[in-house]
Design brief:
single chain, mainly alpha, 66% helix, 0% strand, globular
Length: 258
């Protein structure tokens, strides 16, 4: 898949907590700034800033491009993604709604709408949105939808109805970390095995996805001290902070007392 972002990139402190980014422009950003006079040039600037995780600046670049091309689906979708990555979920929802009107992929938009609702603590709405997704999914997206639907159910103390869709041998593709957590939710794997494997995982993205699922599962299971410990461990693994699971954990941490 290649690199997700540049080696020199913004921290979550700048994108989520209001600190200054204080990083130099990459060569790609410098080149894009020189051409940022057309919608295409501004779009390229947004893409280059995105590679440095400078999501707030990227959203501004896409906004400037949208003034020139207001019904551009690609620009709207990319700006929505940057709003999600900075937990500006109301703005993201507005863009996602417009994307749907313009004919965007239904699963893509529903899934991210569900994530926005989850980040906004609107778990019932998020749960219903993820339920809408499931019939549109292959196994790879299905395991992610089951994961988030189940976490919504745990938050609401409802039955995790989509867990019946999980089975061993699902073709989960690169969504292996979601599968590791869901296998615990479904009783197909022990909590301790999945937990220790996630702790020893070198990749922060993979580790945090599984750990966040286990954290909410522990909270739901009334293992509050375990849940708090896992939350602390997640927040220390910020090497891939834009992941949806890290964003969810960071968002939860302010009120995480279960």
């Amino acid at each position: 898949m290649g690199k997700y972002f540049d080696d020199i990139h913004a921290s979550w402190q700048s994108q989520l907590a209001g600190a200054a980014a204080e990083i130099d422009d990459s060569e790609a950003v410098c080149a894009a700034r020189e051409a940022a006079v057309t919608a295409e040039g501004l779009s390229a600037l947004g893409d280059a800033l995105t590679k440095q995780l400078r999501y707030r600046e990227a959203a501004d670049a896409y906004s400037a491009a949208l003034k020139l091309k207001p019904d551009d689906l690609s620009l709207l979708r990319r700006r929505a993604g940057r709003y999600i990555s900075t937990l500006q979920c109301e703005k993201a929802l507005n863009d996602l709604k417009e994307c749907m009107t313009l004919g965007a992929d239904r699963l893509d938009i529903l899934y991210r709408t569900g994530l926005c609702r989850y980040f906004m603590n609107q778990y019932a709405d998020a749960r219903e949105t993820f339920k809408e997704c499931i019939d549109l999914c292959d196994d790879e997206m299905g395991i992610a939808v089951i994961y988030w639907h189940t976490l919504c159910s745990y938050k609401l103390e409802h039955t995790a109805a989509l867990l019946v869709k999980y089975h061993a041998g699902m073709a989960v593709g690169h969504h292996t970390a979601y599968e590791k957590a869901v296998s615990v939710f479904a009783g197909a794997r022990s909590f301790d095995d999945a937990y220790h494997e996630a702790l020893n995982e070198n990749n922060d993205l993979e580790s945090v996805i599984t750990l966040y699922g286990l954290c909410i599962y522990a909270s739901y299971s009334e293992q509050s001290s375990c849940a708090r410990k896992i939350m602390e461990q997640i927040l220390q693994r910020d090497g891939f902070w834009p992941s949806y699971a890290y964003l969810a954990a960071w968002n939860d941490s302010f009120n995480f007392t279960e």
